[in-house]
User: Fold this.
Amino acid sequence: MKRRDEMRIESYRERAVRSRRRRERELKKTRFILMNAAIALVVILIVFVVAIIKLNGKGNSGSKDYTQENIKKKDTKKAKKPVMTATPAPTKKAVTQNTGVGAKKWIRTDLDKDKPMIALSFDDGPYTPVTSKILKVLKKYDSRATFFVVGNRIQTYKEILKESYDMGNQIGSHTYDHEDLSKKNKKQLISEMRKTNRELRSVIGCNATLIRPPYGNISDLMRKVIKIPMMYWSVDTDDWKWRNTAKILAGCKNVKDGDIILMHDLYPSTANAVKKLVPRLRKKGYQLVTIDELFYYKGIKAKAGKVYASGRK
Ligand SMILES: [Zn+2]
Assistant:
């Protein structure tokens, strides 16, 4: 009897152990599944967050692009503005021609035509550290000048260029790349003109009405292809060579009515010379004018493709 009882107890125990093991196995399985599910959830969450961050980043740069596009669009609009004048709309062919109401700014109508005039001209800029100093002097002495700018510098120095234009200074073209135009073919010449004008229009809203050929070199082809007057000078200060204020001033000692003075707004010595030269000339009774003003008051009708060196006929 005892033995049978023992056997029964034994089998109970075995069953209990077996069922406990089963439960444990099941618990383990559930835990494993739950763990995996949790890991998967975390991974999904991470992927999701990363995706959102990426999307945000893209969204930002996207909106930046959009603004840039907008600015470009605005510029094009601005650029097209001068077309809405009496001047015929510039076709692609005629981009090099004098266009725009913007260029009218370069002629003041309240000057005294009987008083002597001199046109200061600056090549190779803009260059803010020097150009800004020159502008300050011009403003102080109610004077203006002509700046022949290099096209590929315009975007870098557009603020000072705009300021210069707003003050009434004339902005001329000194080509886009400052290369010797006399060695270029027709296509290259047109490209140099067009690229510079495109930059000019994006900042000041109009094309150049005058060009100063780099190195003063002019070919027959240039006379035919370039649809605006070409400018030389009557007084060369050689400021780029001297880089010396006293020598630049000495070069301007014998200036006279109608002169066009050549300088470069790249050198501090040039800015220093201007600081002394402008009040000196004003004291002598000279009106310091843009080249368009000089031609206007001296009765010179400058023609496309022709070369001019002074306001004297
Ligand atoms: Zn130059």
